[in-house]
Amino acid sequence: MTLLLFALATLLLTASPGPGVLYVTARSIAQGRRAGFASMFGIESGELLWLAATATGLAALLAASAAALNVLRFAGAAYLIYLGIQRWRNAEEVVAPSRERLGRIFAQGLVTQLVNPKVAVFFIAFLPQFLSPNEPIAPQVLVLGVIYIAVALVVDVTYVLSASALGSRFLRGALARKRAGRAAAVTYVALGVTAAATGVRQP
């Protein structure tokens, strides 16, 4: 029952709109499946690092430090706003924007998830509630991590396939690409401002 509840919580987190979902969706729409999967693997790699931090106790240290949480909060907000500005600039190009390298898309996805306030709250404040202090922590995190990544992969693959199909069908024209780019840019900046305003509350 506990694992089922954790799987449900993971589904709600990964499926709800946020920096990670937006990044994967925007890349899939703009550059198709390959870029979408590259962004997805970047996002998942960031989540694996968060799982490792939880297993080693780093998440607990972050939870105990208001200063560290503020650094994470503003770094994440600044990065999202930066991505929004870059996306807007690309959308303003008259010709079709150049296709970014998959390695760079992966790296941006990794950083996006590392500084994602929503993910930080999940791993710092929520996941530890499913851990028993009377048993070794690492094996428990491993089990929960497998469930988390499995659910996240299903959700993200769905987003990649749906968004890439949408992009190939409706965003062939320059005007449509420009409008989609502007919408993604505004959403990035809005998420960044929201993250800076709300922050990560200590558990």
Task: Give an overview of the whole structure.
The chain is mainly α and 203 residues long. It has one domain. It has nine helices and no strands. It has helices at residues 2-15, 19-31, 33-56, 58-64, 66-91, 102-114, 117-126, 137-170, 174-198. Helix 1 packs parallel to helix 8, helix 3 packs parallel to helix 6 (102-114) and helix 3 runs antiparallel to helix 8 (137-170). The radius of gyration is 17 Å and the shape is globular. The protein starts with a helix and ends in a 5-residue tail after the last helix.
Order of helices and strands: HHHHHHHHH
Quote the distance from N terminus to C terminus: 24 Å
Put simply, the count of helices is: 9
Mean pLDDT: 79
Largest sheet: none
- Rounded Rg: 17 Å
How many beta-strand elements?
A: 0
Outline type: globular
**Number of structural domains:** 1
Structural class: mainly alpha
Query: Helix amount, in percent?
Result: over 70%
Per DSSP, what share of the residues sits in E-state strands of 2 or more residues? under 5%
